[in-house]
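Readers of this paper often ask what the protein records in our data store actually look like. An entry from our holdings is shown next, in its original layout:
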Amino acid sequence: MLPRVGVGVDVHPFAPGRPMWVAGLHWPQEDVGLSGHSDGDVAAHACCDAILTAAGLGDLGAQIGTSDPVWAGASGVALLTEMAGRVREAGWRIGNVSVQVVGVRPRMAARRVEAEQVLGEACGAPVSVAAKTTDGLGFTGRGEGLAAFATALLVPA
């Protein structure tokens, strides 16, 4: 079997009154979080979708969906840990994951290495984290929410 590549995308609007979780990290200085069934961590969710699609297992919604109360409020790290386990059970090893967060906040640069460590431990493979703004364009540029795009490389176990 050949290596496989997967792509994941996640998007969530900001939600007042919720804590901000992005790339497996809590951002206590932020006054809004992200909406969602779980913690809304777009980076972790995009990583989940990337590894799942590479393994041919669908996406996060196909695996657990928003109707499963077990995962209500779950951390993105817990979801990524679980999905990485499912990928390994399906006969794959995660080679690496790359994720890019798109939005104006939080400012990721100072905590990038920390985010890479947390997400890497969750999936059991190296994770690269980057961030971009969109120069004021679109909902991310207007500060209405965040998006994340991830790519994963899997190799047969």
Notes: Residues 57 and 123 are 16 Å apart (CA to CA).
